[in-house]
Amino acid sequence: MISVRIENLVKRYGNTEALGGVTLDLKPGTMTAVLGPSGCGKTTMLRALGGFLKIDGGSIFFGDQEVSKLPPQDRGAALVFQNYALWPHMSVYENIAYGLKIKKVPREEIKERVRKTVDLVGLDEDMLVKGRKPTQLSGGQQQRVALARALVVEPSLFLLDEPLSNLDAKVRSKLRVYIREIQQKVGITALYVTHDQEEAMSIADTIVIMNKGKIMQIGTPEEIYSKPANLFVAEFIGDSTVLKGKALSETESELEGNIISGVPIRSDDGSPAKAGDKVDIILRAADLKIMPRDTDCCESDKDLCLNAAVESSMFIGFKYKQIIKFNEQTIIADWEVDHHKEEIKLVVPKDKIRIFKS
Amino acid sequence: MAEYAIGRKQKLMMSRPFKVTLKLMAYVLTCFVIFGPLSGLVIWSFAEKWHWPAIFPQSWGISYWLKAFKGDMMNSFVNGIEIAVITTIIVVAISVPLAYVMARYRIPIKPVIMVLFLLPQAFPSLPIFANLSVVFYRWNIAGQKTGVILVHIGAAFIYSIWTMVSVFQSIPKVLEDAAYSMGASNIRTFFDVALPLAVPGIIASSLLVFLYSLDEFTGTLMIGSPFVKTLPVQMYTSSMGYEMQIASVTSLIITIPGILLLLCFERFMKAEYLSSFGRI
After folding, report:
1. B238 shares a domain with B173
2. SS3 state at A245
3. Which domain range does residue B141 map to?
4. In this predicted model, what pLDDT tens digit does every residue of B5-20 receive, in sequence order?
């Protein structure tokens, strides 16, 4: 169990900065998920940690040891890849045992440790029969073999590069729980790269949101969801609508005739908003309520009430996703009752609104 | 309209015997195209006496086949095989590590190396070999197997290096990354991961080189003769002496390893091995 520290990491490809000065701490024994759209630099960061690319600036510490100049062999970080990267010419047993063979562990001990690890990742022991090739296994089983191969060497750091994105939804959610359980059982420090926010939310202690080679926010899943630090995070996490508005003061803004008071306006650089600044008002689909037009529901200081109309709706399982027209603007809301083609009152709890200076 | 369409469809659906006949005809035609040119050689090789204007030989026999197996021919055959085997071993032994390095690492002079190997193919071979023979006479390796092998190595290298580069490029890099992260050194990873996965490609590539060396004529003639003879050279000399029977027997013997090896080759060859051919 080690702590990992990345300081001001820079990686350039030609003129583009894949990583533009990233600083991040991984606490010992925790799972950190790096989440971001494709091309945000998350995989580059993982590969830099594993030692697979030359960095252009900054440093990486495993515990107290500075490792940024070390080749992957000397770092002791085990990787799990999106496409499993199992060696097709070796049997399942040989794949898992390879790392121990390299470390010249005695044969009997290898057998014992491979068997234990296979149990740990939830594979049958008959996977280990002679000549069983990984290509004969299903995708989920192959990824379990890859997990076993990485874990059997007791690595200092566990790096997972979108390990589940090649699997179908059901296997994915099952294996996700497994990976979390294993990580906690072994107590290993882990970095999990993904573009799937549900996956990141459910698996990690800490979530790192990245965009264009920069970290946008670091926090627990709850913090990221309920207190997005900026517009990017607010838009990226969950299904939400961004509306244009105007600042009246630091804590008061106007949305087309509706005053939102008591919600502080943030900005990416921390500077307060002045009256007259343009603002982005973020409404998360799951926070909104749709009421019939004639209800007198609004306690004016807690909720914001907008007169609007539902234009279309679709059933998404437990709620209806409804497209709402409000003064030429479109708002998306998830609500239990279908109000298709009705004039409605959209109720927005003020404490759920996020406002950013645009 | 609809009726017309159905009618057309029915016309296209052929009866079973008709289909079988069509297939058979296709097979016969294919066989004729492949083996037709060879059939003349087969007839010639068994002809004891064949004078114009007879359509078939006046008398048949196997005396030329016996002659072939007794005389120089067997000697040339063994020579050719020996040269081809040594050439293949040396070419593959050099090109496998070289191709791996070229496929995996960014080498600034890579285009130069590739062009260097391609260069001998860019000029007519006859003047090149004639020139080489002068040099080889000076080094005292002309008329010796060493000289012939050297010429074959130089000419066959391009086939080997270019196929091997594609072979290594077709092996996903993550397979090696996985080994590195397990603590395997670069050399260990090459032997444990890259090399075993490249084996089919290496076999395909060495078959290419072997067949090239076995069939190589110009260089062998210019450098090796009259002391080192391989089957193609032997065939050339006998057809110059208007011994059609000997020439036919020789060409049939040359064809056999070619066909056998190409059958194996087809099993190991993948289209992607040739994908980087001509790409620098």
Report:
1. yes
2. strand
3. 66-278
4. 444 555 556 678 888 8
d(CA A86, CA A91) in angstroms, rounded, equals: 9
User: Given CB atoms, is A81 within the 8 Å cutoff of chain B?
Assistant: yes
pLDDT at B252: 83
Question: Of B13, B36, B60, which residue is a domain's last?
Answer: B60
The continuous run of DSSP H or E covering B148 comes out as helix B145-169
Question: Reduced to 3 states, what is the DSSP secondary structure of residue A308?
Answer: strand
Neighbours of B200 (CB within 10 A): 15
ipTM greater than 0.85? no
Q: Which of A4, A16, A24 is nearest to A215 (CA)?
A: A24
The answer to whether A326 and A306 are in contact (CB under 8 A) is yes
Contact residues, B window 173-202, toward A, CB-based 8 Å cutoff:
174-175, 177-185, 188, 192-193, 196-197
- Across the interface, which of A51, A71, A99 has its CB nearest the CB of B182? A99
Last residue of a domain, one of B60, B78, B99: B60
How far is CA B179 from each of CA A32, B176, B196, B201, rounded to the nearest angstrom?
A: 24, 5, 14, 21
Radius of gyration of chain A (CA): 25
How far is residue A222's CA from residue B228's CA, in Å, rounded to a whole number? 83
Contact A88 B185 (CB under 8 A): no
